[in-house]
Here is the input.
Amino acid sequence: MSYTAKDYSKLLGMEGFSEQLLKNHFTLYQGYVTNTNKIAETLNQMLKEGKSATPEFAELKRRFGWEFNGMRLHEYYFENLGGKGIDKNGAFAKKVAQGFGSYEEWEKDFRATATMRGIGWVVLYEDLSSARMFNCWINEHDVAHLSGCKPILILDVFEHAFMLDYGLKRPDYIEAFFKNINNEALEARLK
Here is the structure.
């Protein structure tokens, strides 16, 4: 079974995101899908050929997490866009308010995490064991994810996600991101 890149062209025309930036980002995402499939196929073939004890097999196994998470994080990111922002009276806002003391405190923490120096992702996780919420910095696709937690809101803060439109003005990109959050996607992820 192979993965197929999803079509996110419905996001074209979204305020604060140029067509060129989005199309470039979609192409990058499609590369993760292609590479996930290629590595999975190669690993399967190497296993059949008895090459699982080779350094090449080991390196591809390590690389698989990078490509797969790059694919999946982009899907979460694109799917939590295309809306009119967070409904401050909705279930999502109430959930983060419970975990952070108020919606405003959660947003302050999320934005602070997003403006940290470096490249990566900001992920709001829900711990499936305790239902606690955490805003986390993910430096690389395959490193620092919280085990047993479900991603609820994902923000891409690699330069490709914003520099074409915003240059070094990451806070302006984050503002555009917040204006376009798809609240329905967040609430569906909470269920």
